[in-house]
Amino acid sequence: MVTAIIAAAGQGKRMGRGINKVFIPLSHCPVLVHTVRKFSHCEIVDNLIIVTGPDEVGEVKALLAGLKNIKPWQVIAGGSERQYSICNALAAVDDQTEITIVHDGARPLVDVETIEKVVATARQYRAAGVAVPVKDTIKTVDAEGFIIDTPPRDTLWAIQTPQAFNTSLLRQAYTSAAQEGYLGTDDASLVERLGVKVKIVSGSYNNLKITTPEDLLLAEAILQQGCGSNMVRAGIGYDVHRLVERRKLILGGVEVPYSLGLEGHSDADVLLHAIKDALLGAAALGDIGRHFPDTDDRYKGVSSLLLLVKVQEIVANQGYRVNNIDATIVAQRPKLADYIPQMAKNIAKALDVSEKQVNVKATTTEGLGFAGQGEGIAAYAVATIMKTSSDKVRLDSDGVLTPPES
Length: 406
Prior knowledge:
The chain is an alpha/beta fold. The chain folds into two domains: 2-140 and 153-229, Spore Coat Polysaccharide Biosynthesis Protein SpsA, Chain A (Alpha-Beta Complex); 231-387, CATH 3.30.1330.50. 31% of the residues lie in helices and 27% in strands. It is built from twelve helices and 20 strands. It has helices at 31-40, 57-65, 82-91, 112-125, 167-180, 187-192, 213-227, 270-282, 288-291, 304-317, 340-351, 369-372, and strands at 2-8, 25-26, 29-30, 47-52, 73-77, 99-104, 127-133, 140-141, 147-149, 157-166, 199-202, 232-244, 249-251, 254-256, 261-262, 320-330, 358-363, 376-387, 394-395, 401-402. A hairpin with a 2-residue loop joins strand 2 (25-26) and strand 3 (29-30). Helix 8 runs parallel beside helix 10. The chain is elongated. Residues 389-406 have low confidence and may be disordered. Pfam families: IspD, YgbB. Keywords: Isoprene biosynthesis, Lyase, Metal-binding, Multifunctional enzyme, Nucleotidyltransferase, Transferase. Its cofactor is a divalent metal cation. It catalyses: 4-CDP-2-C-methyl-D-erythritol 2-phosphate = 2-C-methyl-D-erythritol 2,4-cyclic diphosphate + CMP. One of its GO terms (molecular function) is 2-C-methyl-D-erythritol 4-phosphate cytidylyltransferase activity.
């Protein structure tokens, strides 16, 4: 049996966010979620133990409870130092566990191949750790800031995680360190004190530990590069409806006072129709006529806001989230400036995005064409969507985890 301990109790002071760095969004998903998924995708890992701050246990449990297809897990309260936290987690490791992996929750870019290699190496040598060769020349400096030595660079490696060990060996190392009051910076250093050699496994420079805001930007760039052209997609929508008597004029879910309204099977909200087509187009899912045909009486007179919510759900089910909307209403009359802010609010709420991600504007045609002659109203929309997790895990504006919806 292989158990992975994921250390997620750090406060992340250098990030300057005021929250545990594993909760910070990376490509719209908390850092810890990326890490947990990587280990869950590794077939040789049987279960996970996430160790976090005592006051964050409930938040982590809520976060993991909303994720799909992850390995069996438990959450353990950590201590004031990383070593104390791992010691708490070790106490929860099943006695049948042959190999225990220890990994930093703030290293979300580790790949499955690396996890498999370090476990295989630990089976052979009892102790293994992922590392990369040091690129820079390293200097040893005295207390006054003077160089006293230049170690040969070809002997220097920067240690990372995961590190993997025979479980009984790792427990022995932690017991010895506790008895002698030794506080190490990683698990390998504790094992080394027992006289056991730790075998290095060549890792990747992409397996960075997110510690500073710059690390977060770099991790984001690496993830986007890996996602390729499917990361961001764009779609365009266009719709037009005739103005007729005895119909309400509904635009962006707002009833606009006017003597005429738009003719159509639903509420004929030309703005929302254009936005829906743009979203469906971005996801390569056809158009609104395909999903909500005007031959279906269920959609007769229906609010286009309700259908916009359904379009958002359709797009989300394909693994995309709405990134932004830019739309233009083409109408000679009536004047719409006073109603546009509410339109933007309605659209943002229906799509579950910030109002800053929605832009609505209106223009005339200087009296030209059907819109200029007051015969109808048209709308254009551009939408972008982003590939993301299908699990709805979010942080609110204060950085607090919002549990996934059931």
